[in-house]
Amino acid sequence: MNSLKFQYFFLYGSFAAVQPFVALLFKERGMDEEQMGYAMGMAGWAIMLSPAVVTALADLHLSPRRLLAALCLITGGALTALLSFSGNWPLVIGFFVYSLGVTAVLPLLDGIFFGVQRMQGERGEPETHYNKVRVWGTFGYMVLLLALFYPMERVGEVALALWFGVGCFAILFLLSFLLPDRGRREAKKAAEGLPTSKALLVLFNRENILFSAAMFLLLSCSAAYHTMYPVFLAEDLELETHWVGIVIMSGTIIEVFCILGLTRLEDRWGLRVVMLGAIFLTLVRFGLMYAYPNLTVAVGTQVFHGAMICAMLVVPPNYLNGLADDSNRNSIQGVYTMLIIGLSKFVGTAISGHVAAVDQRYVHLLCLLLTAASLVCLWYGFRPRQESDLSSRI
User: Fold this and answer.
1) What's the pTM value of the predicted model, to 2 decimals?
2) What is the 3-state secondary structure (H, E, C) of 324-351?
3) Which are the contacts of 281, defined by CB distance < 8 A and separation ≥ 6?
4) 282-300 exposure pattern, b = at least 16 Cβ within 10 A, e = fewer
5) Over the stretch 239-274, which tens digit does the pLDDT of each residue have?
6) What are 140-175's pLDDT values in tens digits?
7) Which CATH number fits domain 2-180+194-393: 1.10.10.410, 3.40.50.11260, 1.20.120.330, 1.20.1250.20?
8) Where are the domains positioned within the chain?
């Protein structure tokens, strides 16, 4: 599992180098808030195209390791090209190609992990909990933000952060050759039918439709928030650019403890209560940010960041894995990424651009309303049946 830990470390490290700063790069190169919202929204279209295709290939006959290596080359190359562009359309196209690659990496990596976890169980070995490996992504996010602070302070150029992202993908490419091979057993799954269609039926059946709707709303909120939060700090609250990463990192420190404590919380309270509690704390976060648009609250509400990340990014992959079998273990992650994460990314970023053009404060009101709707959907429609089995894997 060490090779998987390092994959998560550098993948989320690349997120730290790109996500907080790409909107500022677009702003530097002449985009206004509406243009920036649509440009960032292109990532949503990319997510709707590549993850389901790539993970279906992994479920059918191609080696996930080779797919991962190819994606790292594509993503790193696109990010390098993006840094050389200046016009609006070249920037949008470069970001779209980058998004095509990077959005397929995470569900593919999750699928590899759950395949290895399944093999551990079949061999009678203790199964590695997902949160114990996924937390290395948070470590990577923190380390990269810290590593960026001094160079960003000295150089003062946003592009420097994205070059760190290119470096992360170069390392990920090399590390992909060290990943465990799931063996020949899963290569026989092609005869069992198209994995993507099975994944669709699972995600949108009567039992899971409200869960899928709730995640769409919550992830739309996340896309709106994460697109405009760095701009809100730098432009509205006049925070110097090199401090933006440190503010964002403050939330990831809390995130580490939330992820590591997730198994214990679920053992005590159950998956349903943990999810509802996490989304309620997210609701409080955006309520405070809307009511008090100042730097103290903008930084202080980072204390709720860990709960939000657990609800959006840690619990759902485990829950989905519990719904899958060997024939669609990768595909269910890819279809979810395509239809829920991808569409929500486009919707959230596009709307946030229009809203921010009026007033950045209204972005937090939008997030508040989306989170409240997500909480209602989960309250009425999220009742996991096999909580003990799921919590043992988280």
Assistant:
1) 0.70
2) CCCCCHHHHHHHHHHHHHHHHHHHHHHH
3) 304, 307, 308
4) bbebbbbbbeebeeebbbe
5) 887 788 788 888 888 888 888 888 888 888 888 999
6) 988 998 888 888 778 777 888 889 999 999 999 998
7) 1.20.1250.20
8) 2-180+194-393
CB 137 within 8 Å of CB 9: yes
List the helix and strand counts (H, then E) for the chain: 18, 0
Query: What DSSP state is assigned to residue 261?
Result: T
Q: How many CB atoms sit inside 10 A of residue 210's CB?
A: 18
Cα–Cα distance for residue pair 74/61, rounded to 1 Å: 21
Nearest to 354 by CA among 221, 218, 213, 228: 228
**Sequential DSSP letters for 263-304:** HHHHHHH-HHHHHHHHHHHHHHHHHHHHH--SHHHHHHGGGG
Query: Which token pair is 127?
Result: 């199964």
AA identity, residue 32: D
Residue 161 and residue 17: Cα distance in Å, rounded? 5
